[in-house]
């Protein structure tokens, strides 16, 4: 028996798995979360990489790189290597994955084999985009890579009974994409993937501030204000926040106080798009499953689902119960982690790569 054949025997794979620190990754546009089997979420960091412009070598990754964004010297640039939930910079994503996988390995005090890794991907990605995630994860040090569609992982993480005959529905609002999916009997009955989510909301605030106040603000300032006072529905008590940036007329620094009413107006376009996509999905859902949803409701997951008033807005629009998953930001990573805990029974939720699909680049 050859060595490569020996490596693939069930007994050795089982033995290898005993010592491997298997991990699941929510490779998000805004944040990357890493879940280690048996330990839970060990990493939750921004998906940012600061690189040297000349050498293209990473200088900082994760939270440190995000801190550098907008403040770096001329020779260093901080970028996000994923856009709209897919890889836009392959080598930089590979370096980021290698860093996070290595950091996860620090959880073990003894040398361990390369991990089996399961990565969440948007439901609307192409074969080329799937292959890019698969190849980047292998190149970053995984011994085996599984891919799971993010709405499926989010539903598993939220505890939805997607393997049962009754229907259930999840809306996963991330940084780059919003995923809408209806499940029954272990499969997706219908799904929608739109590239309108948290990032688009930040851009809405930047554009609104520019148009109304001639004030240019950065993405981080927009994100902070969105989290602090952004909403999809009138608040019990409207709030205010201060925006700081550069006046486009004078070129000088300026601070402007804005209300939650203004920020809600700024976010209206993106929120309306998300609401319309959910309504369309419900409109196309079979009547029997609609009856199930009237009992179980619609589950919200993802960081963007925490926008103030989104649950109330959707309940008004859909006339159905809408509820927020427990710890919505970690649902995808935790759901993918459930596959690792019960691999033989849950591996059917993984998606395969088509033979002969082209690689990245």
What's the structural blueprint in terms of helices and strands?
Blueprint lengths: L2 H5 L2 H10 L3 E5 L3 E6 L3 E7 L2 E4 L5 E4 L1 H6 L7 E4 L2 E2 L2 E2 L2 H16 L10 E6 L5 H13 L4 E6 H8 L10 E6 L4 E7 L2 E8 L3 H16 L1 E2 L2 H11 L10 E8 L5 E7 H24 L3 H10 L1 E4 L8 H9 L3 E3 L6 H11 L1 H4 L15
Q: Can you offer a commentary on this structure?
A:
By secondary structure, this protein is of the alpha+beta class. The protein folds into two domains: 3-153 and 332-349, Nucleotidyltransferase, domain 5 (2-Layer Sandwich), CATH 3.30.420.40; 163-324, ATPase, nucleotide binding domain (Nucleotidyltransferase, domain 5), CATH 3.30.420. The protein is 40% helix and 25% strand. The protein has helices spanning 3-7, 10-19, 63-68, 90-105, 127-139, 150-157, 198-213, 219-229, 260-283, 287-296, 310-318, 331-341, 343-346; strands spanning 23-27, 31-36, 40-46, 49-52, 58-61, 76-79, 82-83, 86-87, 116-121, 144-149, 168-173, 178-184, 187-194, 215-216, 240-247, 253-259, 298-301, 322-324. Strands 3-2-1-9-10 form a five-stranded mixed beta sheet, sandwiched between helices. Strands 13-12-11-17-18 form a five-stranded mixed beta sheet, sandwiched between helices. A three-stranded antiparallel beta sheet has the order 5-4-6. Helix 11 links the parallel strand 17 and strand 18 (322-324). The longest helix has 24 residues, at 260-283. The protein is flat, with a radius of gyration of 22 Å.
């Amino acid at each position: 028996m050859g060595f490569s054949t020996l490596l693939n025997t069930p007994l050795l794979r089982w033995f290898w798995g005993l010592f491997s620190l298997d991990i699941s990754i929510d490779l998000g546009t805004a944040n990357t979360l890493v879940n280690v089997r048996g330990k839970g979420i060990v990493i939750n960091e921004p998906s940012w990489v600061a690189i040297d412009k000349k050498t293209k070598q990473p200088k900082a990754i994760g939270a440190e790189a995000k801190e550098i964004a907008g403040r770096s010297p001329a020779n260093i640039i901080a970028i996000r290597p994923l856009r709209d939930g897919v890889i836009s910079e392959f080598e930089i994503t590979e370096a980021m994955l290698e860093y996070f996988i290595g950091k996860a390995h620090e959880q073990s005090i003894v040398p361990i084999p390369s991990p089996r890794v399961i990565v969440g991907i948007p439901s609307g990605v192409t074969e080329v985009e799937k292959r890019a995630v698969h190849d980047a994860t292998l190149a970053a040090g995984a011994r085996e890579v599984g891919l799971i569609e993010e709405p499926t992982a989010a539903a598993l993480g939220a505890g939805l009974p997607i393997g049962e005959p009754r229907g259930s529905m999840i809306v996963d609002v991330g940084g780059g994409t919003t995923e809408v999916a209806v499940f029954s009997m272990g499969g997706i009955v219908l799904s929608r993937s739109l590239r309108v989510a948290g990032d688009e909301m930040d851009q809405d605030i930047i554009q609104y501030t520019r148009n109304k106040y001639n004030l240019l603000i950065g993405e981080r300032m927009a994100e902070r204000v969105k989290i602090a006072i952004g909403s999809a529905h009138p608040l019990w008590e409207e709030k205010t926040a201060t925006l700081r940036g550069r006046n486009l007329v004078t070129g000088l620094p300026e601070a402007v106080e804005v209300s939650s009413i203004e920020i809600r107006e700024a976010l209206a376009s993106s929120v309306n798009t998300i609401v319309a996509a959910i309504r369309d999905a419900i409109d196309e859902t079979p009547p029997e499953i609609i009856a199930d949803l009237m009992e179980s409701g619609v589950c919200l997951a993802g960081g963007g689902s925490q926008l103030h008033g989104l649950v109330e807005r959707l309940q008004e629009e859909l006339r159905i119960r809408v509820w927020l998953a427990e710890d919505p930001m970690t649902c995808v990573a935790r759901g993918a982690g459930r596959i690792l805990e019960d691999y033989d029974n849950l591996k059917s939720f993984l998606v395969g790569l088509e033979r002969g699909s082209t690689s990245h680049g």
